[in-house]
Amino acid sequence: MASxxxxxxxxxxxxxxxLNRMASLFRRxxxxxxxxxxxxSETPHLSRMTIVAEGSDSQVEQIRxxxxxxxxxxxxxxxxxxxxxxxxxxxxxxxxSAETRSEIMQIVDIFRAKIVDVSTDSVxxxxxxDEEKLSSLYNLLKPFGIKEMTRTGRIAMARGGQVARREEAxx
Length: 171
What we know:
Layout lengths: L3 E10 L4 H11 L4 E8 L5 E10 L1 H12 L4 E6 L5 E12 L5 H10 L3 E5 L3 E8 L1 H11 L4 E6 L3 E4 L13
């Protein structure tokens, strides 16, 4: 069976331990989570969790059904097959001298990123985009020397009228 990356979106109650229960379920099933991002949703007291994991369609469907059974999960959906918008955020601290600063700034401009912090020996770049864009930016900045980097992991939403939310809240 072919294995590919799946984007799973879950609406969950804002309660202690929910993230741990979700991660434990993936671990017990032998799935590596490529990224997981959690934040507030449009509904008070509910968070939106976006999980990227690799597996076959049938394996991910089994996981989705297991996640659905977790008491604090309101709704879960594999949106991989849908037309989605996905983004990541990256902060990259790059070594920068007076000689290299302008070249770094040109690269940052090309990627529509921005410099959010400057010191005598480095600049911090903030960039948003898909995984490939951020990897390309990283690869171009790497020769200058990466001091630190962090990425949020993918967040995603289906385009158009499809939403992952409580059924009774649907319009």
